[in-house]
Design goal:
Radius of gyration: 30 Å
Distance between the termini: 105 Å
Order of helices and strands: HHHHHHHHHHHHHHHHHEHHEEHH
Helix content: 55-70%
Amino acid sequence: MSNTQATVTAYLAAQKKTTNKELAAEWTLLEELHNEKLWNELTIKLVTFVRHESLQDETALLQLYQNFLSTFETKINPYGLIQILEVVVDNISDKKEAIDFLEKVKDKVKICDEAVWYLQVMQGNLYLTNLNDLNSTKKIIEELRDVLEEAGNVTPVHGKYYMLASQYYRRVGKHSDYYRCGLQFLGCSLDDYPRDQWAQQAFFLGLAALLGDGVYNIGELLAHPILESLKGTENEWLVELLKAFNTGDINKFNDMKKIWSKIPDLAAQEVKLRQKISLLCLMEMTFKRSAIERAISFTDIAQETKLPAKEVELLIMKALALDLVRGEIDQVAGVVNMSWVQPRVLNRNQIAGMASTLDTWMGAITNMEKLMENRAAEILTN
């Protein structure tokens, strides 16, 4: 018997002596799977076994790794190995040692890209949550960003990465990046996300949608079921405020000021919020108009946005520069001729408005078709 096998045998024999019969049976099963070299079954069993309450101790888990798992870690599925080691690392008290531990494992799983990505995300979480090392966290996020985007398909690591990235961006106050990564996380891993944390995540995402630079597609968040978690909570008002922004409803924004101004981040950015909702109001005005009614007067814009007349042209120029709308300004006539508005996720009322516009177009086409039929002979003879 080799020294390695002797170590494993002695370790398992000691563990099976536990007075907990259920736990002893678990150790016996692990021994059988190991002796029969059923590596896949052993991996699946260990993924759940390491979470047993009796093992949630740094010493116990490290002994499990050193005396048992390390003897066959290169024979099992690399991704499964990282799933097992995630529990081990969580219980290591010195998080710098935990990062070093993972670094040593990296070469052992390098044949599996997903396992390496998973390991890097774990290191990023340790840097961010436990060591407050923002630079190291940022480096990992930037290294993985392009790799994951080019992966070709969504892997289980994508959700973990987007959660790490969103937490980092929230920590450093990059609202738009947090919003983008937060939505991507929800698109990957919502089912795995604890229900009791939905309301907090929804609140943070709502604030990021309002405060984030370049975030004008608020309908994307409004369509997500996570906002339902705010119903019945003290932050339920946020959903109504998001709806006001999505439709550019400045009257509602003003009416709700006594509520949203209690949030320090929103109160401090009131000027920025007013500019954003004014831009969204202009987009909504453009969207609601038919193709033949896209000449919008400065007076109408000032009335809808509640802006002084002298600031209307600057608002239009801002919207054009951000490519939220396209068109031409006629300063002499005091109008802007809109030709396009940036696509957004629409709510039911906006979709109904679009349907009405399509009905109007179809009616115009039908009338033109009938006119052509009635005057076909005249056109052909001439």
